Amino acid sequence: MIKLNTKKENKIQCPYCGHPLNVFYASGKEIGVWDRNGVRASNVDLEGTFSNVNEKGRGVKVEKVGLHSYSNNEEIGSIAILPVVDSNGNNIGKDYMEFKLKGENSSYEFYIGESGKPVLQFNNTGMAIPKIQWSKTGRAEFSDGTYLTFNNGILTGGNAKGGAF
User: Fold this and answer.
1) Which residue from 68, 91, 89, 64 is spatially nearest to 78, judged by alpha carbons?
2) How do residues 99-118 score in pLDDT, each as one tens digit?
3) Other C-beta atoms within 10 Å of 105: how many?
4) What pTM did the predictor assign?
5) Would you say 63 and 69 are in contact if contact means Cβ atoms under 8 Å apart?
6) Which residue has the higher pLDDT, 54 or 25?
7) How many CB atoms sit inside 10 A of residue 82's CB?
8) DSSP structure class, residue 20
């Protein structure tokens, strides 16, 4: 085990030579830094898993296309970026984000701005839409009989010529 010196200039440094820990390509180009602010890398493909799960089993594991959250050493949820592919594995559309919840009391909340209030909440029973200031709940009806249903400013359903959605 190598012990790192974290006292000099708030940088993680090599205990033998005192240099900060930087990550380089074989060509010598710097692609990452490890310092008191964490580990950062740019323009690299992640191989394997980066983990900061602590001794209490809380933290995240980052993989090439996703992030997995842990509590008490159990995965409680994940966010992944996945491609839209056909049966042969060929890309046929834009990538999408997948959110998974695990456990009875897991939930995701999405925030916009610095209001400190979630705009969407998802848990194991479904989706909740908190009241958003100045938002409206109701139905927008059109002369052909179609309509859109809104809940706190979020489109939640409706009826089009092709049927309900």
Assistant:
1) 68
2) 777 766 666 676 666 666 66
3) 9
4) 0.48
5) no
6) 54
7) 11
8) B
